[in-house]
Amino acid sequence: MIEIQRRGLLLVMSSPSGAGKTTLSRRLLAADANITMSVSVTTRAPRPGEVNGKDYHFISQRDFAKLRDAGDLLEYAEVFGNFYGTPKKPVVDALQAGRDVLFDIDWQGTQQLAQAMEGDLVRIFILPPSAEELRERLIRRAQDSSSTVAKRMAKAADEISHWPEYDYVIVNEDIIIAAAQIDAILSAERLRRHRRVGLTQFVRDLTKNL
Ligand code: 5GP
Fold this sequence. Notes:
binds guanosine-5'-monophosphate, five-stranded parallel β-sheet, globular
């Protein structure tokens, strides 16, 4: 199989909490060896079952400020009184090595990432099929208190209003179909000419013998 060297891409998936983004991310990471999750730093407390270094790097406000002030974060945001940010170095290294990075960040972070590295970015927005379904999913998840569920519902409308800023929009009614749509996006985006840095050489070699 001919391998043409390419630059990695940054795949952003945004959605209101409860739209199925986490399930879709996990599935993609398990199915595709060339994509890894960007692990954000956050000042919020871990939820039951969350693993430090895997779900997030859980850090103090003070350490967060240090990273931010040193320019070591590609983007950051404050959500519900907690700070979240994306460490820069793993992302830059992955792109150069031709590996893709998946981001679970909101619209604020996506806008900042676009400013920093627009050409590398592929943005997918995931919508729930209906408001009722979103509410049910949040309650079923039951990781959050009922006041947090209410807050997340209120925030959903605001988050959803940013859908036109994304390259692709998926309505997650059926997880199998949504996952297949994400695979299709990723396959096509990986084939984009500007990412395939090995093409010039490949075509040069090809045409030499024509
Ligand atoms: P949660 O506390 O539920 O894990 O995340 C709350 C919100 O913060 C979600 O909307 C999530 O997408 C967002 N978030 C998580 N990590 C980051 C990050 O590194 N940067 C930004 N801008 N948002 C993040």
